[in-house]
Amino acid sequence: MESLLPSKPKSAPGPVSSFVRFVVCGGGIGVLSSLAVPLVAVAMPWAVANAVITVASTLLCTELHALFTFGTGRRPGWRRHLQSAGSATAAYVVTCAAMFLLHAVQSSPSMLREQAVYLTASGLAGIGRFLVLRLFVFAGGARERTVPVTVAVAAATTATATATANATAARTEIRQRRTTVDEWSLPLVRAEAFAG
């Protein structure tokens, strides 16, 4: 039986839960894509098949990230699809740059070294992409984004005011100590100068 009371809105998953979901969704779609490219390449050139599967998998991943990974509760619009595609492109550029750098430093690296560099770059790019998607692309509506900014500005203002007050108090205390030290040290210095 369905309740007549309004249901509580689902809260977005926490950062660890989101990251696990991000890895599972992205990794799962990545494995499926790697299996699909050779199958589609039977009907068209490999480069075209790779491009088609890349676009389709990026669209599917963005849908999954919006609904499941980051729990926005609604499907992403074109803006989020484009932002997600941009972050995927940036991750691609990072992995390509890492491989280019490896081959610039070492003319013929072993396959094990290539895999290590590629996987490390992919992991770092994936973490960066996760952060971009979580903090910017799927951060929530305008109201959800302005509250933390307002709180952050208030906290920064309070911290600045507190730091200024503490610095002023510290300067006053240092001046008082200097005066006290000067009053005590001058006669001692003079006495030592004449004792010699």
Describe this protein's structure.
The chain has 196 residues and is mainly α. The chain has 2 domains: 15-140; 141-196. 81% of the residues lie in helices and 0% in strands. The longest helix has 54 residues, at 142-195. The chain is globular, with a radius of gyration of 30 Å. The model is unreliable at 141-168 and 188-196 (pLDDT under 50).
The averaged pLDDT comes out at 76
Q: What is Rg?
A: 30 Å
Task: Note the main sheet.
Answer: none
Q: What is the N-to-C succession of helices and strands?
A: HHHHH
**Helical stretch tally:** 5
Task: Give the overall shape, derived from the CA principal axes.
Answer: globular
Number of domains: 2
Approximate strand percentage: under 5%
Parts with pLDDT < 50 across at least 5 consecutive residues:
141-168, 188-196
Task: Give the N-terminus to C-terminus distance in angstroms.
Answer: 102 Å
Q: How many strands? A: 0
Give the helix proportion (percent range).
over 70%
Features:
196 residues; mainly alpha; 2 domains; 5 helices; 81% helix; disordered C terminus
Quick structural overview:
With 196 residues, the chain is an all-alpha fold.
Question: How is this fold's topology laid out?
Answer:
Elements: H1 15-40, H2 46-69, H3 78-105, H4 111-137, H5 142-195
Helix pairs in contact: 1-2, 2-3, 3-4
